Structures are given as structure tokens and as C-alpha cells.
Hints:
Elements lengths: L42 E5 L3 H13 L3 E5 L2 H10 L4 E5 L9 H12 L4 E6 L4 H9 L4 E4 L4 H10 L4
Parallel strand pairs: 1-2, 1-3, 3-4, 4-5
Amino acid sequence: MHGRGAAPARPERLHALGGTPTPPEPHNSSPVPRRKDVPVRRRVLLVDDETSIHDALRPLLEIEGLEVVASRTLEGAMEALNDESFDVVLADLSLSGTGGREGLALAEWIRKERPTLDVVLLTAYGGRDLEEEARRRGGIEVWNKGGDVLRLVQRIAHGSGS
């Protein structure tokens, strides 16, 4: 097992947020080689429905020596969380593409089930209200997708607060 967010022993928690069972998504298989001088330090679950976000963030995280597992759906993220251990979950606020807040629900579930697992939400539509709601729901950190990507990658790589 890796890191602080060990997978629970009971797989029935997979669908704790509701929804229908779906076949597991393929997880890893990254084409980006990591820097040889940087040891793998942390495992990251990257959850976003936009391919462009995966394409932009994954290589930057891997260059920093992070092992990245990617998911494009809430169900895929839940499957990965039940099957594997992670140090941090980096999730989009809206995983449906319709302005939903599935990422916040996922983060809230993680806070309840794995309180030591680091959670960071990404959003293109952030603001003070969302940040306050995220704090109320368990101190969940929120980053704007249009913000400083390199600073975000460093925050994930080194585990420091915003």
C-alpha cells in the first residue's frame, strides 16, 4: 500500500455516492517519461472529464516524479480509490460538463472515508462562495484552472498548502 489514503477493506463503498455500476476505466499507461533524477514521491489521482486538462497536467506532474492515475468519470475515480492508494486526489468540480458539482461530492466522500487523503478541486468557475463552501465541507482546497499551473504542480509534488 502507498501513502496516507489506503484503500478501504470493503468494496461495497464503491457506489457510496449513488449511480450505476460501470466497467472499470483503464488507469495508467502514461507515454511521458519521468525525470530519472526525481524519485516517485507521491501518487496522484487526476479526475477530470476534459481531455485537454489530462493532456496538460499529467506530463507536468509526471516530470516532477509523481505517479499519475487518470479518470474521466466519478465512477472511474471511485473504482480507482477502492482499488488503489493515493496521496492526493486532484479533481474537477464539474465532471459532467453540465455545471454539476460531482467533484465536490467526491471530495466530501473522501474527507469522510479517508480523512488523511489530500484533496484539491479544480474549477473554471471558481469564486469566494465556492471556496467557502469547500472549506465548510472539510477544508477542501480549490484552484482555478486558469491560475498558476506550475505553482499547482509544485503544491501537489511537495504536499504544501496553497
